[in-house]
Amino acid sequence: MSRLLLLSLVSAVAAAVLAAPAMTAGNSLGPPGGTIYAFDQAYRTIATPTSLPNRGAFDTIYVFPNCASCASVSEAAPGHPGYNGGRWKVVQAFGITSQLTNAGAVVAAASSLVDTGIRFVCPLIRA
Question: What is the DSSP code string of 74-89?
């Protein structure tokens, strides 16, 4: 029962994080998803109901608690060295209030970075 509750909670958080930018733009039809930036390129995604244990390789996806309209930013993307196939760890980047489009800019601009402990899988598809 607790595993099901945890999976439901993580899925809801991941869907909310990834769907917020799409819904604010009026794109609320279809599965939850949205835009994620990596290397100054926009990617689309679909939130999947997954929750992974903290084992193995993950790429970081940054979310912005101080910017409700900001899309997430990834440190990795398909075709780039080290991409782990859409296995993500979610890190909150505090202090960012406008859209950034690459991980280097996020790390440089954030007042603090906090690992949420959330791990999940979702694809990145070039927009």
Answer: ES--TTSTT--SSEEE
